[in-house]
Amino acid sequence: MSWSQLFPVIDSGPTPDPMMVAFYSGASALECLVAGLFFLRFWRRTGETLFLAFAFAFWLLAGNAALPVLLGQPAQMHGEVYLLRLAAFLLIILAILAKNFRSRRP
């Protein structure tokens, strides 16, 4: 049995228009940047580090949305792009855990 028989190529359907992909990726990146700015503003008002962590996480997600378009390749071709998303989610989880542990201490 050959490799191609073990793992056949699956037709994923029609390929999307690259201009539309770039447009939606840019819109998603802009939304994440704006959300990060809102959380930065909340951090400046309150001094709470949870808001700062959320701001950085949203900026990482903005990079995750914009980087495949800037590289000129789909995200599936650059697996390292997903490390930005992983870092953002880990940052959010760690910030929430730190906030919960800090609030439990007397």
Describe the overall structure.
The chain has helices at 3-6, 18-46, 49-71, 81-104. It has 106 residues and is an all-alpha fold. The chain has one domain. The radius of gyration is 19 Å and the shape is elongated. It starts with a helix and ends with a helix.
Structural class: mainly alpha
Largest sheet: none
Provide the domain count.
1
What is the average per-residue confidence, as pLDDT, rounded to a whole number? 88
Helix content: over 70%
- Radius of gyration from the alpha-carbon trace, in angstroms: 19 Å
Distance between the termini: 65 Å
SSE series: HHHH
Query: Strand percentage, roughly?
Result: under 5%
Shape: elongated
Could you list the spans in which at least 5 consecutive residues all have pLDDT below 50? none
Secondary structure elements and their pairing?
Elements: H1 3-6, H2 18-46, H3 49-71, H4 81-104
Helix pairs in contact: 2-3, 3-4
Which short descriptors sum up this protein?
elongated, 4 helices, about 75% helix, mainly alpha, about 110 residues
Short description:
The protein is built from four helices and no strands. With 106 residues, the protein is mainly alpha-helical.
